Amino acid sequence: MARFRARKTAAVLFVLGVAPMVTSTARADRIMLRGGGEIKGIVLKDPSQPKTVVIQTASATKPLTFSRDQVLSIVREPGPLDDYVVNRDTVQAVAQAQYDFGLWCEEQKLTGPAQIHYQRAITIDPLFGPAHKKLGHVLQGTRWLTYDEQREAQGLVKVRGKWISRVEKEKLDAKEALSSEQASWASRLKLLRRKLYDDDRTIREQAESQIAAIRDPAAVPGLLHTFARDNEAVRIRLGELLAAIEGPEASEALVSLILAEMDNDVRQTILDDLVRRRDNETTVRFVAALRSKDPVVVGRAAWALAATKSTTAVPKMVEALFQSEKRMVMVDVPTASGGLSGSYGFSQNLSGGTSLPGGASRGFSTIASQGVLTGVAIAPGAIAYGGGSIPVPAGSNPASNFGPPPTQSVPSRVTVHQPNLEVLKALETLTGVNFGFDQPAWRRWIGTSYHPQTEPLRRVPQP
Predict the structure, then answer these.
(1) Residue 29 and residue 82: Cα distance in Å, rounded?
(2) Residue 289, SS3?
């Protein structure tokens, strides 16, 4: 079939006055590059570039160029590129002829050269539709649009090889600008921090003055990175600086400082700075911290919610009374044999009896069962085992057939629920009641009796 299509293409070219393609006995090339690379194609002669090797591959729309120093060897191998090189210059400069030659290239799996000749066809005749379609162009009115032109007509913008909307482009530009500003601030703050410890008092005072004047939200990440791990006095000063900067970036930074702060007095001072900002999202941020896997962070979040009188957070705090984590522990598990004196396997047969090992069978009017424990699960204040059973003859005394089930220690992955005392303290502060770690009791009380208070409450002790 491929030969037939090739002959048909040659016939079409002949009718159009184009010389039929010649089949050459020349070989294609396998080019070995320095460093272990290999390219399959055919080397094109180019007298104007004696110090380079020009290679046409089956997929490239333009020849590849390498310096002769990069080429270690050229191995001759036959391939369709030989015929392509022989015949490409004999194709008539007519759109139909170039298009037909492109079809032949496709049949020979020469996708790159095919694109070259489809492009030549529309260069000769800009309205030649078949070649436009092969190139993926779309007719809009009387104009054929390329893929990029179609995207531009849709109002899209090309960024790093990807087409996005103008709104996305504006967001991306703003994000990149912010990132650049943040990097600039980080460098400036690093330099100012060194000046704070300069021997010259004037330099120290100038640095302190410049830091105190910062009001740009883009400086927030740099401030945290530069001063958050400094001494207590500096961390308190950092809280003051962040509180003076408007915007959610500074509020989020203050929350992160509170959750990470180990010193009680510093934490309280920073919280006071945050409260003075009257940020409506403060409660939301601390509630989100209740889902942390770190019990210390959860306790500090609960303390902050209580200290800020966030009574609406009580239901979420109840759910944070316990934290679950997976652990590998050694657990004594009864063996599956249940204490049988032998290794007997029972299976019910079709006659309603029980088959014994070795093919022996004994029928029973009823079949009793002996329970065995299998597996373990740990919950707050309890350890539970899974249950199973094996059959035993009816009328027999299970106690006489089965002794106490033997156990063995096996590693088990269990879920352990740890209570968080700081959350309980915060709940008591906010509600004035204490149901301990009884979550169901808390939930019932919230559903029937709890009404968020608006009057000031006493401050909860520091965790």
Answers:
(1) 9
(2) helix
